[in-house]
Design brief:
Distance between the termini: 92 Å
Helix content: 25-40%
Largest sheet: 2 strands, antiparallel
Mean pLDDT: 75
Low-confidence stretches: 1-8, 18-22, 24-42, 80-84, 285-299
Order of helices and strands: HHEEEEHEHHHHHEHHHHHHH
CATH class of the largest domain: Mainly Alpha
Number of strands: 6
CATH superfamily of the largest domain: Cytochrome c-like domain
Radius of gyration: 29 Å
Number of domains: 3
Number of helices: 15
Strand content: under 5%
CATH topology of the largest domain: Cytochrome Bc1 Complex, Chain D, domain 2
Length: 380
């Protein structure tokens, strides 16, 4: 501190006032922390947290948990390193460009676009566009996800292989339904993503909510219920309180580092699960689903056929997205003439609407080739 400042008695008053304000701010923050509930509902105006907060020490903390340090620019102190910074690359985007990219939907429903459809119509869309992978009633087909059921199973613990484990579905596990509009709109159906209209996505969501027996305002969702943005915003999923926001500014571990007489890690016995509890999970929807062992039994031990049923049948049994149907000679005549190597290449690398390996990236190239051979032989 310079002598000129020390000789000025007013600096003591300023320091005392600053200390008083800092202490009051810290006390207020501590009080707010104590009153803050463990769970926070999505708030459209403060979602999920304010950009910068002040901790109990009076420090400004950014959203990533870092302390915001003052920066000096031309002799002026800024409380953020980016204050006063102006972009100097590219051009200012138009509103049309922003709208084209701004397609995400928040848990509170902000971002949901216009559109509507009844649940009855949504069931028809689901049957035509989704059932080939997810089953007629969301029970799942092949290795594709089960969307219905599992209510009350999230607390299950598959400890020794004998108990049923948790079944995570849209109805049992999802905390909010609104973001699923965004996901379905941009990623589904798998062979032809972005092909669904807003109306169709609303109808699909309504049908899935009905299948999962979700009530809105204490009422069941009926076939003639109209699903739109306002309706989706009123939905409260059973597992809404099963998640919390990961705010990096509030540590989840507390305590002091051990500096002496610490526990010897070599003497600590670490418990390991010595069993495979994978097969203990039993879907609550009692519909037949292919798994590797079941499909091998049904196919008489034919590995190629079992791989086909587990990974490819959802599209090639139904012709979804224009896929050639196995057993339909007319669908395969031109393809067979193109040659086996061409079929192998298309199957492994993807072709038209089909993703590489049909989306089953865990399959080895030789397995894919064996599946192609099986499909061709069954379609001659």
């Amino acid at each position: 501190m310079s002598k000129s400042v020390m000789r000025n008695p007013r600096w003591k008053t300023a320091v005392a006032a600053a200390a008083l304000l800092l202490g009051a701010s810290a006390m207020l923050e501590a009080e707010n922390m104590a009153q803050k509930p463990a769970y926070e509902v999505a708030d459209p105006d403060h979602y999920p947290y304010r950009g910068i907060v002040t901790n109990t020490k009076g420090q400004k903390i950014n959203i990533d948990g870092a302390v915001v340090r003052p920066a000096v620019e031309n002799g002026v102190v800024h409380h953020s390193p980016i204050t006063g910074y102006k972009p100097h690359l590219g051009t200012t985007p138009t509103q049309e460009m922003i709208d084209a990219w701004n397609v995400d939907v928040r848990p509170d429903g902000k971002g949901l676009p216009p559109g509507k459809m009844t649940v009855e119509k949504g069931a028809e869309v689901f049957a035509n566009k989704c059932a080939s992978c997810h089953g007629d009633f969301g029970e799942g087909a092949g290795k594709n996800p089960v969307l219905v059921g599992g209510k009350g199973t999230l607390t299950n613990q598959a400890q020794n292989g004998g108990e049923e484990g948790p079944e995570k579905t849209l109805g049992s596990y999802a905390s909010h339904i609104a973001p699923y509009f965004w996901y379905i709109k941009v990623a589904m159906p798998l062979p032809t993503p972005k092909s669904l209209s807003n109306d169709e996505v609303y109808g699909i969501l309504g049908y899935l909510l009905q299948l999962n027996e979700i009530q809105v305002d204490g009422k069941d969702i009926e076939d003639d219920t109209v699903i739109d943005a306002d309706f989706i915003k009123k939905v409260r999923m059973p597992n809404e309180k099963g998640f919390e926001y990961n705010d990096l500014r509030h540590p989840y571990s507390h305590g002091n580092r051990c500096m002496k007489d610490c526990i010897d890690p070599k003497k600590v016995k670490v418990m390991h699960i010595a069993i495979d509890a994978t097969d203990s999970i039993v879907p609550s929807i009692k519909k037949p689903r292919y798994n590797m062992e079941e499909s091998k039994k049904e196919s008489g031990g034919n590995a190629a056929e079992s791989d086909y049923k587990a990974s490819c049948a959802a599209c090639h049994d139904s012709g979804a997205a224009g896929a050639p149907v196995v057993g339909q000679k007319g669908d395969w005549t031109a393809r067979i003439k193109a040659g086996t190597e061409t079929l192998y290449t298309h199957a492994i690398k993807g072709f038209n609407g089909m993703p590489p390996k049909g989306g089953a990236m865990s399959l080895k190239d030789d397995q894919v080739k064996a599946i192609v051979d099986y499909m061709v032989n069954a379609s001659k």
